[in-house]
Amino acid sequence: MELLHSGKVRDVYADGDDLILVASDRISIYDVILPTPIPDKGKILTQLSLWWFDQLSDVIPNHVISATDVPAEFAGRAIRCERLEMVMVECIARGYLAGSGLKDYERERMVSGNRLPDGLVESSKLPEPIFTPSTKEPVGGGHDAPLTYDETVERVGKELAEELRRVTLEIYRRGSEIAAAKGIIIADTKIEVGHANGVLKIGDELLTPDSSRFWEAAEWQPGRVPRYLDKQFLRDWSTQHTDWDRTEPGPVIPDEVAEATRNRYVEVYERITGDRWR
């Protein structure tokens, strides 16, 4: 196999006409890879993504060829998949006000061109989920930048932009319904898509603690931040307990913080899938 690309979390290998996508235990926040791995993270992301791919296969096909036909050293954390011609847009759906969306709202009452009503606060549920795409920058290429829907049309064309919006919002809607039944709110999520033989398919990962904000539903109320079940926990730790300026190198994660982060990933996996993490 030939290593084609090493990203923030995943390594991509060529194996004939197929790709082997390997999820590492690396973790990144603010687009910087931290020096401390999170035990089992890559396996959890892979297995949870596979579960979601199966649940939502009627919304959009995915790139998975096999979850087992992979090199033995990558078992559990890798998939054999199709090569996709990636759409260079991060597709993001938001159902609640948080993160960069909250900052944009506080500044201009808009998020990626979506006008929102006055009176919303942190963690507010939006009147309806919104599509808030962004650019897709390479590792080391800077931060992704928000795009309006019209800017997305300019980049990819009207037909594809409409399909990106439809698929992203439907994945969010269906995923949110499933998670809500398990006591979890999906505040927002992002997906990556591409084409294989002219067919639009989802790649990378789906509805994981790396790509989504998961909140404890029982603790949610507008104006307060619920318990995080994702890597926002780590972002908050870096802000509150270090003087890191969000540039490389990132801070070393203490053992207890790494373990607490892992526990959140395990909890999300177990609650959503109903399976015990081995």
TrEMBL record:
Major enzyme class = ligase
Q: Which key words tag this protein in UniProt?
A: ATP-binding, Ligase, Nucleotide-binding, Purine biosynthesis
EC number assigned by the record: 6.3.2.6
Residue span(s) of domain SAICAR synthetase/ADE2 N-terminal: 4-247
* Entry-linked Pfam families: SAICAR_synt
Q: So what does this thing catalyse?
A: 5-amino-1-(5-phospho-D-ribosyl)imidazole-4-carboxylate + L-aspartate + ATP = (2S)-2-[5-amino-1-(5-phospho-beta-D-ribosyl)imidazole-4-carboxamido]succinate + ADP + phosphate + 2 H(+)
The question of whether Ribosomal protein is a record keyword is answered with no
Q: Which GO terms describe its cellular component?
A: cytoplasm
GO molecular function per UniProt = ATP binding; phosphoribosylaminoimidazolesuccinocarboxamide synthase activity
Q: Name the pathway it acts in.
A: Purine metabolism; IMP biosynthesis via de novo pathway; 5-amino-1-(5-phospho-D-ribosyl)imidazole-4-carboxamide from 5-amino-1-(5-phospho-D-ribosyl)imidazole-4-carboxylate: step 1/2
Q: Does the keyword Cytoplasm apply?
A: no
- Which Gene Ontology terms describe the biological processes this protein takes part in? 'de novo' IMP biosynthetic process
State the superkingdom: Bacteria
Q: Which CDD domains match?
A: SAICAR_synt_Sc
Which family would the database say this protein is a member of? Answer: Belongs to the SAICAR synthetase family.
Which protein is depicted?
A: Phosphoribosylaminoimidazole-succinocarboxamide synthase
Protein source organism: Actinoplanes xinjiangensis
User: What is the phylogenetic placement of the source species in the record?
Assistant: Bacteria, Bacillati, Actinomycetota, Actinomycetes, Micromonosporales
UniProt gene name:
purC
